[in-house]
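User: Study the chain.
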Amino acid sequence: MRRTRTHALVAATAAATLAGGVWAAAVANASPVPASDTEVTDKYAPGLLRAMERDLGLEAAEAVELMEFQESAGSRTEDVAAKLKDSYAGAWIDGARSATVAVTDAADVATVEKAGLEAVVVDHTIAELSSWKLSLDDTLAGLEGVPSFYVDVESNQVVVDVHAGARAEAVKAVREAGVPAGAVAYRTSTEQPTTLMNVIGGNAYYIGSGSRCSVGFSATGGFVTAGHCGTRGATTSQPSGTFTVSSFPGNDYAYVSTGSDDTPLGLVNNYSGGTVGVTGHSVAPVGTSVCRSGSTTGWHCGTISALGASVTYSQGTVSGLIRTNVCAEPGDSGGSLLAGTVAQGMTSGGSGNCSSGGTTYFQPVGEALSAAGVSLITSGGGTTPPPTTTCSGYESTFSGTASAGSAYGEPSASGFSAASGTFRGCLDGPSGADFDLYLQKYSGGTWTTVASGTTSAPDEKVSYSGTSGTYRWVVDAYSGSGSYTGAYDTP
């Protein structure tokens, strides 16, 4: 089986509950894939393992082996460095294979090897190298053609990156700094570093002399936010940009064009150490659960109570807003409103606060994108519209939005009761994604997968002949994010 990852259901309950005479256990550990990976996923975040698979080509077990080795090696090198004192010349790790400590005194090799580490004898201590590099901070800083310089412990030298034609000036500066020629290596480079900033929904940005608002959503070349945050031509910092479109009152939207050093990402800050991937935009109906991100109060959720609302501020009336019972406070203005992973709007204003609650209005995102003539940037790099379902002719249906690496219980995490017979399920996921469909049965206090559709396509169909009991469908976003629809028949 190609599926080797364990996903916890997003809709997991917090504790066991009695339903229909059967214990519907907590599903936080429910998995649509083999239980052999449970310990791996429990110890390391699935997102971390997926990133290591993507970027380093490592399977989950290999990634865990690497991280455990590096954790152990790091601890041992710290201990050895403290014992070596003046002889210590740095340390480095080679994958999951070895860890090396450099020393300047051959008598200290035994101390290193006793800790299970490899030892190498070199000429310069880490203290000397660091001191020389510090001297170069004064002479090389700002020197044209020298983009960077650093201590390289493996070569036991200070490495100076230089552009073609700039070496002579760099060598002269190093000599003036009193750094021994043998302790410096020059590397020809074409790099020209620039400051970088990721533009992420919910993060703060600053206007003019220091007023603060929040990014709504990344869009082509910049981001959309609230119009009252800045007039056309106003400049921003962190990220740097310019309001090229702004409408307020009447509307409350704006578009900020950012510089080439800033990277707009299809993400929203959830202020819990992570982000939510944006999969598209829509107009969600009244009653939809939504969450808001803002730089003052972080991440808060509630429901949509009205669409097309008008609200009068001291500056004038704004119409066509989304009314919610989500709280917000000054500085959250412009921030992101999401229904699951689907963009809804940007924070406009309201009443109350996040201590006592309140009413908050949001400018629909679609109107802002249209006015600016830009496209929403999603976590997949483009706009992902909801799929057109091909799951027709079934008794029951379900739908939702899924983030890559997450799994969702349908039609609920606690499942449904069914008689003996044939179960049929169908899933229609977003184009370009790899969504899987599992049928699980509750038995003996755990959920067990009894049938699955795990092709590399976004759409799956499952058929299973089973006995009576409690079942649930599980939608697993193996890769990609977006909206899905599904349907099923029960005996």
The two ends are 28 Å apart (CA to CA). The first strand starts at residue 17 and ends at 19.
